[in-house]
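1st attempt posting a full record on here, be nice pls
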Amino acid sequence: MKKFEWQDEFNIDIDEIDKYYKEIIKNLNKTIDLILANEERKKITTSLMNVLERMRTSFKTEEKYMIRYKYPEHEEHAKKHKRIVKRMVYVRKLFSDEEKKIEDTSLDYFKDWLTKHMTDDNRKFAPYYRLYKNLK
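the predicted structure (as tokens):
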């Protein structure tokens, strides 16, 4: 299981949003460290919860800006957030309730989703943010 490294291409030059995604990656990496160290289930579940909370906070902030700066794809973007949060809740619940092992593919899915989301979806929003912010 490989860690998730921040890359310059993830930056959208919106400091608050970039900061949140860096925190998500940091928390995801902490979870990976706990899994690799074969730590107790409760610590891993707590770490997954921290990832989930970082995601929710980040997404809430993003969506607030999208509404404020009239991003036309806001609703579709918000749906993507809801779907990934729902999946993360499912993985955390499955792991904590059913004594299942977290598969590498589950965490790889989140890493792949975040990469695509940061490099595609968030990048589409950034110009709207800059344009409308500079008009005010």
